[in-house]
Specification:
Length: about 210
């Protein structure tokens, strides 16, 4: 195939696209719009999950425990609830995706050396999202458990916080993600969607 013939076809098609507004939109406007819609519309990132707290203990320790979730970027605090009926209503309506229920005598049980159970009600409408939220809860709960243990243990309360964490967690795992440190799904989806959109829009320009 001669290069001159290829350039002649390119020149012809270029003028056809510029002359016809519909083809111009299909060639230069539709692909970027599809990239925005698909890449951000099908994002699998789970952040700012709305949650509420039902605190029956109303102690300093229970407030400190809830504060670990409030300051997290994965959850969006929507306030404290007075009873479980309010929690059931918000979960059923989809207003929140998580409700933390802190039982009575929470602080008393911890300082007496007994384990305290925390109930986490997660909206399971979307299983994949619910499993991700469960992972966030378990991670934050582990951090809160270490903080509570440090505050209650007299043998480590006299040392610095960093040293206390080393004593309470002798094994610490550090995980680093290469090339996508924030684990944004848009960076993995955009590359494949670009090829898909090019394959899908090319037949639209055929005459």
């Amino acid at each position: 195939m001669k290069l001159g013939r290829v350039l002649a076809v390119v020149h012809k098609e270029w003028h056809e696209i510029l002359r016809d507004r519909i083809y111009f939109l299909l060639a230069f406007i539709l692909p970027p719009l599809l990239m925005l819609v698909f890449c951000y519309g099908i994002s699998q990132d789970v952040e700012n999950v709305p949650f509420a707290v039902v605190d029956y203990d109303r102690s300093v320790t229970s407030r400190d425990y809830a504060h670990h979730f409030i300051v997290s970027r994965y959850f969006d605090y929507r306030g404290h609830l007075g009873a479980m009926n309010d929690a059931d209503r918000l979960l059923a309506n989809g207003n929140v995706g998580l409700v933390l229920v802190i039982p009575e005598r929470f602080e008393e049980r911890l300082f007496s050396g007994q384990p305290a159970a925390i109930q986490a009600l997660v909206d399971g409408t979307f299983p994949q999202r619910a499993r991700t939220v469960q992972g966030y809860i378990e991670m934050i709960n582990a951090i809160a458990s270490v903080s509570c243990r440090w505050a209650m243990c007299p043998s480590v309360s006299a040392v610095s916080t960093a040293r206390a964490l080393q004593l309470l967690q002798p094994l610490r795992l550090e995980v680093r993600y290469l090339y996508n440190p924030e684990l944004r799904s848009v960076w993995s989806v955009s590359a494949s969607m670009m090829m898909f959109i090019l394959i899908m829009t090319a037949p639209l320009l055929a005459r």
